[in-house]
Design brief:
Distance between the termini: 26 Å
Number of helices: 4
CATH topology: Rossmann fold
CATH class: Alpha Beta
Structural class: alpha/beta
CATH superfamily: NAD(P)-binding Rossmann-like Domain
Order of helices and strands: EHEHEHEH
Number of strands: 4
Helix content: 40-55%
Number of domains: 1
Largest sheet: 4 strands, parallel
CATH architecture: 3-Layer(aba) Sandwich
Shape: globular
Strand order of the largest sheet: 3-2-1-4
Oligomer: single chain
Length: about 130
C-alpha cells in the first residue's frame, strides 16, 4: 500500500462530487490537501472543515483551471504553505446540456468554455505541477 502520510496533493474541483470524496479519502490516509474550487467556495470550505475536524490539514484555494495565471498562483501557494507538491488530482470539469433536437442553439462560446476547462485546464495544472 502506498504511504500518503504528509504527502501534499491538489484536488481540482475538490469541493463537490468525486473531488470531495477523493479529498476526504486522501485526508483519512494522512495527506495534506489543497481543495481547489472555482465557484463552489462554500462546499470547498466545508470539505476543509471536515478534514480539520478529523485532525487533517487542508486549505481551500480559488482558481479557475482554465486560467493559467490562477493555476500558477495555486501551485505557488501550495509550495509556500507546504513546501512541496507530491500529487495532482485533475478532477475539475464542467458540462453543458446540449439539446439533441436543437444543435443549432449550441454556440462557439459553449464549446470554448467546455474546452477551456476540461482540456486546457487539465493541461495548465499538469504544466504548472510537474516542475
Amino acid at each position: 500500500m502506498i504511504d500518503f502520510k504528509n504527502k501534499v496533493f491538489i484536488i481540482t474541483g475538490g469541493g463537490t462530487g468525486i473531488g470531495k470524496t477523493t479529498a476526504l479519502k486522501l485526508a483519512d490516509m494522512g495527506a495534506k490537501l489543497v481543495i481547489n474550487y472555482s465557484s463552489s467556495e462554500t462546499e470547498a470550505k466545508k470539505v476543509v472543515e471536515e478534514i480539520a475536524e478529523k485532525g487533517g490539514i487542508a486549505f481551500a484555494f480559488k482558481a479557475n483551471v482554465a486560467n493559467e495565471q490562477e493555476v500558477n498562483a495555486m501551485i505557488y501557494q501550495t509550495i509556500a504553505q507546504f513546501g512541496r507538491l507530491d500529487g495532482l488530482v485533475n478532477n475539475a470539469s464542467i458540462t453543458a446540456q446540449i439539446p439533441m433536437n436543437d444543435l443549432e442553439s449550441v454556440t462557439d462560446d459553449v464549446w470554448d468554455s467546455l474546452y477551456d476547462v476540461n482540456v486546457k485546464g487539465m493541461f495548465h495544472c499538469v504544466k504548472a505541477a510537474v516542475p
